[in-house]
Amino acid sequence: MSSIIIDGITTHDGTLECSVRSSADLERFFTDESFRTSYDVPIADVPEGVLAIPILAQVCPVAWANGADVYVDEVDATFARALEDVKESLCDMHNFLEGGTLYARRTIEPEPDATGESGLLFTGGVDSTCSYVRHREESPTLISVRGWTITPDSADDGKWDALRERVSGFAADHDCETAFVESNMLSFLDHPMLLAHYKRYVDGGWYSSVGHGLGLLGLCAPMAYARGMEDLYVAATHWEGVDLEWGSRPDIDEHVRWAGTRCHHDAYELTRQERLDVIADYVRAADPDLQLQTCNDRMDGNCGECEKCYRTAVGLRLSGLEPSNHGYPFSDADYRDLRRSLERGEWVLGQDERHMWADIRERASETEPATSAERAFFEWLESTNLDALISSSGPPLAHRLLWAGARNAPNGVYNTVYPAWTTAKAGLRLVRSER
């Protein structure tokens, strides 16, 4: 029987660590790293059943993809029930998921010291900034995670430092507290092998399409329990009417909960352009110097040249703001460069981006262009076939051959060639974030 066993959960100086054992058929989905997550609050007094939540949030979707059962000594009863609800939603969304059962020696129902505090997963992008504006009266703790789009690798040190500095500055300016979480949740899982098996079923990567709603929220559980946090918000990427197979949706995130804390998928009723409207109203009323950070290439500012920078700048203009005042170098000449890049297919775009450009196009049809360059771009956007902008070639042939080879190799062969396989991780980690 396929199984995953959670072993030896320990804490030391704010760091949670545990090991994972699996049946032979699932060994290929795990590396030789133990699972680790570090928090900037003490967690020694957090019950083991709550400490188990971060690791369960990562491994359960892997188990469900293989019809495997998961075994743990102790689990928070509220979270155990939440997993059943999340499993049902994910299995309804992805037909390759088979499900499985969580077995615990003990379930607990602890009573944390509630403080009324709320938390918000925060990067400073459009979605999380909109959620901050909507909940600013709560002064939510701004939570940033290192482990997905910014990995624990030394090569990403500069990006993490830049994110910490920027979020800390935003929090200081807006009278909020911060919480920083660092985890190896992607490198303790063999993410390239997960892609080898499941990329053919999903539009993005494993974590973006399957795991990140449950995974990111679950990482926060020990910190939220220690702080007495009652509400935890994650900003929506998509909105009503956008039906994509995405790992963070209302029917996933709204189910996630544990003792003392409920999670919320925020602003799903607003399109991305409407979220920019919320930000624009806030800028005009209270925060004229607000800076956004959405760049795909940098964390210490916006490059102004990637698709996401251009898309955000155009959206800001449609909401009545000057992009250059909020972190985006943008002028009328950029409309020409943006159109050329879209027509030439210079960016790898998926269904996410198609929906977001459609949202911009709808707003543009209701807006009087401010300049001739803007008018020309919006006329082109109105007439263009957005489906033609979506990348149709798929991953490079070399990646597809490597995935197929890894997927079909016996465990013994795979383990022999694993060192070579890991050198391809950078090219195979196809994850995107719209936070």
TrEMBL record:
<protein>
    <submittedName>
        <fullName>Uncharacterized protein</fullName>
    </submittedName>
</protein>
